[in-house]
C-alpha cells in the first residue's frame, strides 16, 4: 500500500482501490494504510452475493464494485472445479441470465434478464461493471 500512497502523494492517482481481497486482507491494508482504500472490486452477482465482505466494506465507508454482475455462463462447473460447489446452493448452480425466476421477473417488468440482474445489484448500493462487446446489449444495460 505504501507504493500506492506514494502515487497519490505525487498526484498520479486520485485514490486507492483493492481487487479480489477478502475481509482479512482488506482489514490488514486498512489498519496499516495512511491513505485508506476507497474501493474493493470483487466478483459478485445474484448467485454469489458476497454479503459479508460487502457489509464489512460498507462499515469502512468503502465502495464495492461488482465485476461479472451477470454471473458466468457455467458457474456450476467452475465451482465444482475449484471445490466450492458445497458453498453454493444446488438450485443456484445455473447461469443467472438463464434462471427461470430472473426471466419471469424480466418478462413481468418488460426488461431483459441482464437489466433485472444489474438493477438487483445496484439497489444493494454496489457499482456494476458488466462486460459486453455487443452495442445493443451495452445500451440495454444502461436502461
UniProtKB/TrEMBL annotation:
List the PROSITE patterns.
Answer: ALDOKETO_REDUCTASE_2
In which domain of life is the source organism classified? Answer: Eukaryota
Q: Where is the NADP-dependent oxidoreductase domain?
A: 2-143
Note the Pfam families from the entry.
Aldo_ket_red
Write out the GO MF terms: oxidoreductase activity
Give the matching SUPFAM superfamilies: NAD(P)-linked oxidoreductase
What InterPro entries has UniProt attached to this entry?
Answer: AKR (IPR020471), Aldo/ket_reductase_CS (IPR018170), NAD(P)_OxRdtase_dom_sf (IPR036812), NADP_OxRdtase_dom (IPR023210)
For this entry, the protein name equals NADP-dependent oxidoreductase domain-containing protein
Organism lineage: Eukaryota, Metazoa, Ecdysozoa, Arthropoda, Hexapoda
